[in-house]
Amino acid sequence: MMLNVVEVDPFSNKCLNEKRRRNQENLFIDELAELVSATDMSSGKTDKCQILQRAVDQFAGESIPEVFLIQKL
């Protein structure tokens, strides 16, 4: 009986892990954009830096949306 040996390319595995990390990061950025846009009704598409800057500005200005204050159980 012969067993097939499958070689795993470490570079390919690293690329997949990086892609998963970026996808998860983008999901969090999108979620944050929804929360920030609830208080900032500017029009147009914003990039990641703008979303993060608006979130930081809200925290620094203590204008934290009510959504952030809800505790997750």
Structure description:
62% of the residues lie in helices and 0% in strands. With 73 residues, the chain is mainly α. It has a single domain, classed as MYOD Basic-Helix-Loop-Helix Domain, subunit B.
- Protein structure class: mainly alpha
Helix content: 55-70%
Strand content: under 5%
Terminus-to-terminus distance:
53 Å
For the biggest sheet, the summary is: none
| Number of contiguous helices | 3
Number of domains: 1
CA radius of gyration is: 20 Å
Tell me the series of helices and strands, N- to C-terminal. Answer: HHH
Which CATH class applies here?
A: Few Secondary Structures
Round the mean pLDDT to the nearest integer and report it: 78
Low-confidence stretches: none
Net shape: rod-shaped
Number of strands: 0
**Architecture, according to CATH?**
Irregular
What CATH calls the topology is MYOD Basic-Helix-Loop-Helix Domain, subunit B
List the helices and strands and how they pair.
Elements (H helix, E strand, L loop, with lengths): L9 H28 L10 H13 L5 H4 L4
Helix pairs in contact: 1-2
